[in-house]
Amino acid sequence: MTSSDPPAVPKYRRVLLKISGEALMGPEGYGISPHILGQIAAELLDTAKLGVELALVVGGGNIFRGVSSSARGMDRSSADYVGMLATVMNAVALQDALEARGLVTRVQSAINMPQLAEPFIRRRAVRHLEKGRVVIFAAGTGNPYFTTDTAAALRAMEINADVLLKATKVDGIYDRDPKKHPDARRYDRVSYMECLQKDLNVMDMTAFALCRDNRLPIIVFDMTRSGNIKRVVTGEPVGTTVVPE
């Protein structure tokens, strides 16, 4: 952008961004990469400067995955609760990185832990957003058997978000796995019904049904490309948009 270019104008007033835990680990393959955390925080700062009300849901797969641990013999409920705690660790780390860059944030947890986070209270979350604070929702829904995708869809509905942004390592939704099929076709825009008919696996079915039933648009995009969060928020054609029929 040159000095003569008009400032970017956000297309969405309030967004919920779902970040996978795996996005935080970088090349190490485990845990939290300070370098990656800093990059994400810098992009979120640029996005918040547009005046967008920004809420986040972060996963915990870089630390612990409940489903895979359950498959290895751990009780599913116990495994899911440990996974929820992993999301709180990621949320606090992300909060620290954002506040180091001057953003005021609040972590709200679905599991009560007052030393680390506020309890999730919908009206309080909305008030934080209205005051320009970034709200990070942690601990999923607070219930086992529900993914952080479902938590993202649920929180997006509760705060009346305009769109759910699903940040991934792939640049959208394809008709087949692009890693296995070089000729896979990427969709720029697809309906909820097409996703179901073609089994496109946008997110888990509970989360997808919540978005479909409440007509909440979903944008799936590549978070690894610098500047993409801001591009999506300003309406540039990035990734794949899932819309009502």
Give the helix/strand layout.
Blueprint: E1 14-19, H1 34-48, E2 53-58, H2 66-71, H3 76-100, E3 105-109, E4 118-119, H4 122-130, E5 134-138, H5 148-158, E6 163-168, E7 173-174, E8 186-187, E9 189-191, H6 192-197, H7 205-213, E10 218-222, H8 228-233, E11 240-243
Helix pairs in contact: 1-3, 5-7
What features would you describe in this structure?
The chain is α/β, with parallel strands linked by helices and 245 residues long. The chain has one domain: 3-Layer(aba) Sandwich (Carbamate kinase). Helix content is 36%, strand content 19%. The strands form 2 sheets. It has a 9-stranded mixed beta sheet with strand order 4-3-5-2-1-6-10-11-9, sandwiched between helices. The chain has a two-stranded antiparallel ribbon with strand order 7-8. Helix 1 (34-48) crosses helix 3 and helix 5 (148-158) runs parallel beside helix 7 (205-213). The longest helix has 25 residues, at 76-100.
